[in-house]
Amino acid sequence: MESDVTKVIEAGVGTVSNVQKIDSTSQTGSSQVRLQFAWGTNMDTALADVRARLELVKRRLPDGVESPTVFKYDTNMMPVMSVAIAGQQDLATLKKTIDDVIQPAIERVDGVAAVSVSGGLTREIEVLVNPWRLQQYNLSISQVIQTLQNENVDVAGGIMPKGHKNYVVRSLGKYENIEQVKNIPIQVQGGFIHLSDLGEVKDTFARKDSYSLLNGMPTISISVNKQSGANTVDVANRVKKEFNRLQQQLPGDLKFALAFDQSETTKNSVNDVVRTIILGGALSIIILLIFLRNLRSTIVITTAIPFAIITTFILMYFNDMTLNMMSMGGLALGVGHMVDYSIVVLESIYRYRHSGHDPKDAAKKGTAEVGAAVVASAITVATVFLPMVFVSGMAGQLFKQFALTVAFSQLAALFVALTLIPLLCSRILGKMDEAGEGNRWWERISKKSGQWYDKLDGKYRELLVFSLNKRILVVAVAAVLTLGSLFLIPLIGTEFMPNQDSGQISVDVKMPVGTVLDDTGAVMARLGDAAGQMPEVDTVLTSVGGGRGMSGGSQTEAGSMNIKLKSRKERSRSTDQVMEELRRRSGNISGATVRVSSSSGTSILSRGFSGRAIEIAVKGDDLDVLKKLAGQVDGIVRSVEGTRQVSNSMDVGRPELRLVLDREKVARYGLTTAQVSQLLKMSGDGQVVSTLDDGGTAVDLRLLLSPEVRSSTSALESLFITQGGTQVPLTQLARFEEGEGPNVINRTAQSRVAYVYSDFTGRDLGSIQKEIQAKLAQVPLPAGYIIQYGGQQQDMAESFSSLGMALALALMLVYMVMAGQFESLLYPFCIMFSIPVSLAGVILSLLLTGRAFSVPAFIGVIMMSGIVVNNAIVLVDYINTLKKRGLGRDEAIVQAGPVRLRPILMTALTTLFGLVPLALGFGEGAETQAPMATVVIGGLIISTFLTLIIVPVIYTLFDDLGVEIIGRLKQRAEKLSADEATRGG
After folding, report:
1. What is the pTM assigned to this prediction?
2. Cα 141 versus chain centre, distance
3. Angle between helices 295-302 and 262-292 (to 10 degrees)
4. Fewer CB near the last or first residue (10 Å), C or N of the chain?
5. CA-CA distance, 930 to 629, in Å (whole number)?
6. Is the pLDDT confidence value at 435 over 60?
């Protein structure tokens, strides 16, 4: 298969545009070639290109090879639902009902791409030919096959006029029942015999090479794949509705049990995010009430949240975005920040009202005073996410909608802050009274809050004066804190994506190659019983006899289970804890390789084709050398702490019974290799040579040798091959020998490769991968052999690289926005000092929570870069405003700091408390957003404190630098003027 099929196809499709990687798998009877395209490629166009290339190479494939099937693999087309079907019917009748009625009905549902069926019995007519009777009648297998095919035809004979009508002449020769097959005449010397004279003709079922169980009971399972771009929840709802309709209409008391439903996970995750948004918003409102100490002011600010959310939804709608985990996660991260701009506007209006201005005048002047700063702040946050839209790779695909949602929410919040908030302030703010609404308990709380804030204000003023007098000390402390935190980075570790508690577990079992189906089924039954005894488990769907994916076929030594856990409210342990318990229980099953993994959407997405976190490829030409090297790599990976479930693609070969032909003798008897191989094929799976028409349903007609021959090597050796009336013993043409062949031959980039796979636990992926690479660097490799790394490590490196460029571009855009706002190239630098000092908070937050630095955490850093400069923008803008009013620099800073203290603290705390529920990781799917919220909280805590101190200090240093530069320029200009005057005199 490798040389005659795989290599030919690889060469043919290798020139398709945008192909980044070509992988292939060659094994007995099948070849699978996978093309991985660059992100953003139009897959419909790519699919058409691949099909066109295959049409050109078809003629180069050997005779007998089926036409290649092209399948567009898309992560959005992964199974969204697995349904187990049972009823009063026997498995054969149920399978026919599913094939004829249920599967076509589900495939017609809008949004469904494909439906696959596992289990059940399929009717088949078997012709068991006795080879010694063939020898007796001097017949060959080819003659029998040709007779079966030639006798099973309907032939149209044209038109015959008869009277006033034309009749179609047609001979009817199709097989309609098993008796017709038995009585097929076969020409022999001296007359003819019937097919039944050569052996037994049985109406039976196709050999069962797989079956399914639901909670230990026989069943037939259906997997439903959705179309790329289709909404998972909508497709699942339509499929469930169709199942309900079929259940009511079909006989046999059919029962449909959901073993896996990705839409439930999606809906639960979105609902949990909605609850997180509500809780975060409520916490933000409480913070506002404590600081403002005025119910009307709090109500005014609170209105910003629903109006901003509605406006965000409008922007999402016109950009064809959907409500999913990413978009809702972006909204959850932005909800606490939505009131920031409204707080700054209201606080400015609030001060003008206290100065004696009427409501309308206060609304106008207050909004005008901070309008430019608020616009700059909002544009800054939106700007940091602009590069995310253009990030390539998996990170860009995953977080594009997240980035757009955050950007839309900031623009919506800005719109509300500059329009609705001034309007409401001018209408309902009324008399400014911080004593509350006359309620005694509220008055006491308000009074204590006011006293606490007055003390804080005084302490901050003193600290600010001290800092301005000790500028070098302040800068040194900030530098030591920032640089010192960098030494903690190795303690954090890195990973691609955090694990999700999805409530879905996948178990893959591999027995020794060649294990019969019954032995594999016994092991799967033990595992199913072990899983069913765990209190957290809801349903266990078991498939015995794993498929070979898109290449077809089945492996009797493989099995799998989809385990659906109860909802998180009904279980005390997480999915990871249940998986660990299942691993422990499966550890005592000898001879079985059991792999337990999560079935969450992001887990599958981040594992790619191999399905493993760690992937090491050893490339070379010689299979024996590859096997030896793969064994060495396998041992090294197992020795690294934290690796789990290590496997090797060349660990065990498949047992073979080889027929070694003597080509000269074959030719001497006028035979061909194909004729000899055809006889051998009949001794195995046989060959479907024709079909029987049973009321419109085609039933396969399979020809194979009788069982007593297929189960004995000595019987095979005694076979004869008939050719032109001459019978030749098979032993005269070939010899049998037992051996071991490669189970599969993997190729990548049109070169042979052996893979070593591993999962990980207890340590972060980055440190494990680093240790593996260090150990493998010491392994001597023969010439022409190399080691490459893939899996999550490759995805993580590519994503970090793309996000690093996005962060750099975001910082440049932020600087440009601020340079335009302040009409200065120096002031933006002092504001951006709040970004590096906030990294100390990022590192400490991840260290304290035990979370690794991942792609979501990197997204959080980008978001934090936009948020932390907001307070600095508002502070510096007000300092410049006071300077324009005639105040000295230090005096302006000392006045501006306490004035901006309240809005800065309010905006920081509302953002922080709005993110707390998300950072705690409550709800399904929250693990993805939790690292983002964690780094934003950590960075914002540190940056808020340092912004109030370090930014004013850096402001003075840059101001002194600016004054010095201007002074020197003036001196130079004066000197040039004096020189010109001297020369002129």
Report:
1. 0.73
2. 51
3. 150
4. C
5. 41
6. no
